[in-house]
Amino acid sequence: PKPNGDPTAMLMKSYACQRRTPLKHHNSFLTEALEILSQNAEYNDNEGRSVAFRRAASVLKALPRRVRSMQDLRCLPCLGDHSQRVIKEILEDGSSREVESTRQSEQYQAMKALTGIFGVGVRTADRWFREGLRSPDDLIRTGQQLNREQQAGVQYYDDLQKPVTKAEADVISDIVEKAVHAVLPGAEIQLMGGFRRGKEVGHDVDFLITHPEEGKEEGLMPKITNWLKEQGLLLYQKTTRNSYLEKMDGPARASSNMDRFERCFSIFKLQKCAVSCKLSSTASAEDVSTACERERPDEHHSEASGWRAVRVDLVVSPYSQFAFATLGWTGSKLFERELRRWAGQEKHMSLSSHALYDSKQNLYLRAKTEEEIFAYLGLEFIPPSERNA
Ligand code: CTP
Ligand code: MN
Ligand code: MN
Ligand code: MN
Question: In 10 A of CB 327, how many CB atoms?
């Protein structure tokens, strides 16, 4: 089918989970602008508006070429009046006044700085903003009450602001693998989140851990964190126990995007030389630390600049839920949101990171792979590298 009889128009599906969205696309000059408005709406607690701008940006990411005129936008879904106005202004004048004034605004900049602190959400940041606080330094200066997570967030703020590279993620992967196998041989570890989608940098590194013998994974997290602590690799960690019960949490809670796996939000202490070592040598995972000692002994335990803090998320899933957990922790956040919306609105199913429930048949649909879940949902399989919605 060719909309409006235009042979060059492509058919753009309206849910992000029906489309392929590559990491690199042709319209960053527009999507960055729309995402600023989305972010600002989120800072103002306007979720509907925030999602609308994010969906509009996401459609432009899926286009095969750069948008040159408003004509190119005919037949595209998810572009509301406001988004179109912004796009038109950028196409005509090179920038949008609304976007630029938002970008420069004191509120936007302060909210960005404050929510950028690990452990600080929009609500807390907004309260601080209204009290006249603008930055992490202001929190320290005025002696604000901070919880343990926020204290770590402020303490390691500069490091945590720096993007995590793929090379750093690979070193962290080696460490996590070593830790997990030391406490539970046979466990499986998978890199998740942005790095699984092919990103070259991230704000953290995400891992999903399971064991083929269901039950073996129970209580695994404290063992992993203890091992890491003994090695001096953890700067901060907070573990939450698994609280998922199929009967209580399945269909009723599936729409909530917070899952109930055993999880750990942590901050790792990463030796910088381990990264350069891994990049420059063919040393295996086990050899990296010793190879480092040999090649650059002076860089160890020297000064604060010998290591950096890196945010790491660890999640443990029972084997029977692993496919759902994998799908749920790969992202992007909009892709996940759209998958759940598709399931509910189009299929009368509820999808979570634990399960897929079919409300018509009144049953849980079992799956061993992501492919099976897409098939249940009546969706074409989209590989992780094309879930960058
Ligand atoms: N996620 C989740 N529950 C949370 C936090 C995250 O289910 N409390 C999921 C998100 O839906 C996402 C994935 O975990 O699919 C990774 O989240 P996050 O690390 O925040 O984002 P990334 O896509 O990895 O991007 P970044 O590079 O910024 O880390
Ligand atoms: Mn991540
Ligand atoms: Mn993120
Ligand atoms: Mn994460």
Answer: 24
201 and 293 share one domain: yes
- The two tokens of residue 208 are 């999903």
Specify the CATH number for the domain of residue 44: 1.10.150.110
pLDDT digits (tens, 9 = 90+) for 246-256: 666 555 454 45
CA distances from 62 to 66, 172, 265, 334 (A): 10, 31, 32, 13
Q: Report how far residue 286's alpha carbon sits from residue 301's, in angstroms, rounded to the nearest whole number.
A: 20
This prediction's pTM: 0.92
CA angle, corner 36, sides to 32 and 42, nearest 5? 140
- Choose among 330, 384, 175: nearest CA to 266: 175
Pairing of strands 205-210, 307-316: parallel
Contacts of 106 (CB under 8 A, 6+ apart): 134
Mean pLDDT score, 6-27: 88
Q: Which atom of ligand 1 is nearest to the CA of 201?
A: 27
Choose which residue among 160, 317, 333 to substitute to test ligand 1 binding: the one with the highest number of ligand atoms within 8 A of its C-beta.
333
